[in-house]
Design goal:
Helix content: 25-40%
Radius of gyration: 17 Å
Order of helices and strands: EEHHHEEEHEHEEH
CATH architecture: 3-Layer(aba) Sandwich
Number of helices: 6
Strand content: 25-35%
InterPro entries: Acyl_CoA_acyltransferase, GNAT_dom, N-acetyltransferase
GO molecular function, one term: protein-N-terminal-alanine acetyltransferase activity
Protein name: Ribosomal-protein-alanine N-acetyltransferase
Keywords: Acyltransferase, Transferase
Shape: globular
Strand order of the largest sheet: 1-2-3-4-5-6-8-7
Largest sheet: 8 strands, mixed
Distance between the termini: 33 Å
Structural class: alpha+beta
CATH superfamily: Gcn5-related N-acetyltransferase (GNAT)
Family: Belongs to the acetyltransferase family. RimJ subfamily.
Length: about 210
């Protein structure tokens, strides 16, 4: 696996004329991020990571969150992107979600995990599957990773549709795997290896959509 280079932005023009951009998270995104997160707080709460009792406190502000994520990115352990959508070639980009590749390990493992959230206003438009495919292709093609995992709560039907659309392999249940919404929650694990998508996941996804 090659060294993770950061920051890096990824842009993809979709067949419907819209464009998606994975943009590295920055302190200047605070206002847009806070607005979208605040508007979606109730919708996202059931799927949000929380800290177990007795854990050190997490970031107390958006600036602190950015410092934490950027620090991990510079160490090659994460790639924290915000998802931006443009409704057309001449339209501005607006923040609609977040996608992070985390837990990156090199050596004989060469793998990482993907997590994401999206604004409810644009849910169901294929934005998350496209963003995941963009990130996976970067991980496999540019970084040289071999495996990507996505862990999803069994109750999260919308997220389960994402991995189903992309054709990730279901590998089973991990009981009480992650601390989510105030307790340890079971998760289903889905994975993809680089050799399963020799032409890229994004190309396969766009072909299936077409």
């Amino acid at each position: 696996m090659r060294e993770v280079q950061w920051p890096v932005a990824l842009t993809h023009a979709r067949p419907d004329g819209t464009q998606l951009r994975l943009q590295p998270i920055r302190r200047r995104d605070r206002a847009a991020w806070t607005e979208v997160r605040g508007r979606n707080a109730t919708w996202l709460r059931r799927w949000e990571a929380t800290l177990p009792p007795g854990s050190p406190p997490g970031p107390a502000s958006f600036a602190a969150l950015v410092r934490l994520l950027v620090g991990q990115a510079r160490q090659g352990r994460a790639m924290p992107w915000l998802i931006h959508l443009s409704e057309g070639a001449d339209q501005p980009f607006a923040l609609v979600g977040q996608l992070t590749v985390s837990g990156i390990v090199g050596g004989s493992a060469a793998w990482g995990q993907i997590g994401y959230w999206v604004d409810q206003r644009v849910a169901g438009r294929g934005i998350v599957p496209t963003a995941v495919a963009m990130a996976v292709d970067h991980c496999f093609g540019t970084v040289g990773m071999h495996r990507i995992e996505i862990a999803i709560r069994p109750e999260n039907a919308a997220s389960l549709r994402v991995v189903d659309k992309l054709g990730l392999r279901h590998e089973g249940l991990r009981p009480r795997y992650l601390h989510i919404d105030g307790d340890w929650r079971d998760h289903l694990v889905f994975a993809l290896n680089a050799e399963e998508v020799p032409d890229g996941l994004l190309q396969r996804w766009e072909r299936l959509r077409g």
